[in-house]
Specification:
Blueprint lengths: L2 E5 L5 H17 L4 E6 L3 H5 L7 E4 H13 L10 E5 L2 E5 L5 E5 L4 H12 L5 E5 L7 E5 L3
Antiparallel strand pairs: 1-6, 1-7, 2-3, 2-4, 4-5, 5-6, 7-8
Helix pairs in contact: 1-3
């Protein structure tokens, strides 16, 4: 199956934090209790003693976990990659201060975030991801 990805334009740090809080609240209200989190480049270099391994944590602990890692000086939300897997999707709070949502199957949740990000003015576009070396193909852009 072909993976797809929704990518926004750059989002300022206060809005990234608000989106993180929204993500937690949204999935908790949809009976999702946990997520998998991975601290990517570059804070993963300092956070992990060895291999970078996803951690399963309660959604209710996600924001506190990120704040704790930030306070350690290893990185910052929006300046380093953070991957959150929940409900068959992967959210990436990117080091370029944008948001990515990767998925295989389009669901109501995917559409919800695509439309939300469009309504918030984040300019989401959807891309096909054929292979790592192949260029991405844009399939739609919000408001186009």
């Amino acid at each position: 199956m072909t993976a797809r990805c929704i990518i926004t334009s750059e989002v300022d740090s206060s809005k990234l934090r608000a989106e993180l809080a929204y993500l937690v609240t949204y999935f908790q209200s949809h009976a999702q209790a946990s997520c998998r989190v991975l601290f990517g480049f570059a804070w993963g270099n300092e956070y992990y003693a060895g291999d970078w391994i996803e951690e399963e944590i309660p959604l209710s602990s996600l924001i506190g976990k990120i704040q704790s890692v930030e306070e350690s000086g290893f990185g910052r939300l929006g300046r380093n990659d953070l991957f959150i897997k929940v409900s068959g999707m992967e959210f990436r709070f990117c080091h370029e201060s944008d948001l990515h949502l990767e998925f295989v199957d389009a669901t109501d949740d995917v559409e919800h975030f695509y439309n939300r990000w469009g309504e918030l003015g984040y300019g989401p576009s959807e891309w096909l991801k054929e292979a790592k070396s192949a260029p991405k193909i844009k399939t739609r852009a919000y408001g186009a």
